[in-house]
């Protein structure tokens, strides 16, 4: 009886280790799907998955866990014809956050153009929102991608 | 007694002589490159590389969105140098870091919308002009002008700070306010202003040089 139980335990452990071997170490299947998503243009990307995470293949629980989210974003033009993007970030938690955001501009053909993007700090108060703005240096019509991460 | 001491000294010298050279074969702290646009390993309450990059980038983009500066039919001539940039803060900062980066990035990005006068190179230009006028060298290939370029606008500014310290925890905090202003060199009016604010707190004792 004891020997059978021991054998069953060994089999179970072997099976589990085989299943574990199918995944990359330290990376769950759910995270992997978000990492491989196409970011696209005129979008906001949370480079820090702790801030905003999607679950596409979870068996149980919610399919989205977030602390901060985008309440809206868009692009306008300044008096000199340069582009200005804006992003309203909403903090859903009871804690103040300081995040960093940067914008990469692309031509209409999807080619990265304009000045090198630089991280700008933005405080987002608890249960409140904050607006991030960034201007381009060129006057051509551009697409954008805004990246957000926790401040370092 | 003296003989015993001499023997002991000789034995010790012998032992010392036999000891091999010791090599401390432990890996030291390797030098690493860090991204200047983000916080590094050494962080304090002063102005650091990521702050210089962030504030000059923000000012550059803002100036290019200003109609008076960047949308004129005839591009304005601008001086951006350290002459009127004052550091009145308790942080040690070479303000050339701010003005040099701002001028270089703005010049690259403006692409002819703004013309930059290198007033900090005025001495160099005058020397060459004098050599040309004296006939010591020929006139070059570009052109001859009556005088060097006069400027329409010049950058001024100030770095100021406010310090606070918690004596119980030894935590110190420093608020920085860096202002940049573009002054009309005929009228004396300020045609563009920008400011960058930040407050940092730390317990570490970091030295800036």
Given the structure, what is the number of helices of chain B? 5
Radius of gyration of chain B, Cα only, in angstroms? 29 Å
Number of strands of chain B: 6
User: What percent of the residues of chain B sit in helical stretches (DSSP H or I)?
Assistant: 25-40%
The main pleated sheet of chain B reads as: 6 strands, mixed
Tally of separate helices of chain A: 2
| SS strand fraction of chain A | 35-45%
Average pLDDT score of chain B = 90
* Helix coverage percent of chain A: 10-25%
- β-strand percent of chain B reads 15-25%
Organism (chain A): Alloalcanivorax xenomutans
Protein name (chain A): DUF1425 domain-containing protein
Organism (chain B): Alcanivorax xiamenensis
Pfam families (chain B): LpoB
Sum up the structure in keywords.
heterodimer, A: 152 residues, alpha+beta, Immunoglobulin-like, 5-stranded mixed sheet, 3-stranded antiparallel sheet, 2 helices, 10 strands, 18% helix, 40% strand, B: 209 residues, alpha/beta, Rossmann fold, 6-stranded mixed sheet
